[in-house]
Amino acid sequence: MVQPAVWDPHPEPLPLDSAPVPEYGTGSLADLLPTLAAGLGVPGMAAGIPELTPADRNCVFLIDGLGWEQLRAHPEDAPFMTSLLGSSRGGTGRPLTAGFPATTATSLASVGTGLPPGAHGLPGYTVRNPETGELMNQLRWQPWTAPAAWQPYPTVFELAHRAGVHAAQVSSPTFENTPLTKVALSGGAFHGRLSGEDRMDLTAEQLAGADRALVYTYYAEVDGAGHRFGVDSDTWRGQLAHVDRLVQRLAEQLPPRSALYVTADHGMIDVPFDERHRIDFDEDWELKAGVALLGGEGRARHVYAVPGAANDVLTCWREVLGEQFWVASRDEAIDSGWFGPVIDDRVHQRIGDVVAAARDDVLLIASEREPRESSMVGNHGSMTPAEQLVPLLEVRS
Question: Is pLDDT above 80 for 325?
Answer without folding.
Answer: yes
